[in-house]
Amino acid sequence: MILVMGSFRLPPRSIGAAQIAMARVVEGSRAEAGCIDYAYAEDVLEPGLFRVSEAWTDRAALDAHFHTPHMQAWLAERADFGITDRRVTAYEVSGEEAL
Question: What is the CATH number of domain 2-89?
Answer without folding.
Answer: 3.30.70.100
